[in-house]
Amino acid sequence: MSMILFSFPITLVIYRKMLMITNLSSLHLIVTFVVLGISADNIFVIWDAFKQSNTFPQLKGNYHKRMAYMFRRSSKSLLATSSTTALAFMSNGFSSLMPVSAFGWFAFIVIPVNYILIVMYYPAFLIIYDIYVKKREKRCQKKLMNALLCISCRKMNWDNIMSQIKREHEES
Which of 58, 73, 112, 153 fits a 20 to 30 Å CA distance from 10? Predict the structure, then answer.
């Protein structure tokens, strides 16, 4: 969410100072939903590539190699989807209607800015998550499950509970 939020002030600076477009309308708020969708897709692609990098024994434990693999795996597809969407919005920029034109140029700028922020900052968040948060998250999950489970379930082994949940999830 922070990368999405940071992309708007950067876009406004480029939009107003470089392109010298002063028109801002309620139509520009729609870009928020577009950027949310594109960002979610980009983040899932990067997250999946990062998880896949941990399955290779030669990459396991080496964050430099994992990041290199992740970039090779995801950068082309992210660039393709972001650039085609941005160019589609740029075509609105040539409209004779000023609100539509301003919206097109604003969307054309915000999508590449968001792409750059995701490619630059999200991998750092992934490494921080993998090193510091992941272990604590599992402990908190275990404590929460122990607090929520009934007494008979607590007597069962934790691994048996998790495997049972996974089986039920796979069956459904």
Answer: 73
pTM: predicted TM-score of the whole model, two decimal places: 0.73
Q: What is the largest CA-CA distance in the chain?
A: 70
Neighbour count for residue 155 (Cβ, 10 Å)? 8
For the chain, helix, strand, coil in percent to 5 are: 85, 0, 15
> Amino acid letter at 127?
I
Question: Can you give the residue ranges of every domain in the chain?
Answer: 2-134
| CB distance 103 to 31 below 8 Å | yes
**Distance between CA atoms of residues 141 and 71, nearest Å:** 30
| Closest alpha carbon to 130 in 40, 77, 62 | 62
The model's pLDDT over 24-52, given as tens digits with 9 standing for 90+, comes to 778 888 888 888 888 889 999 999 999 88
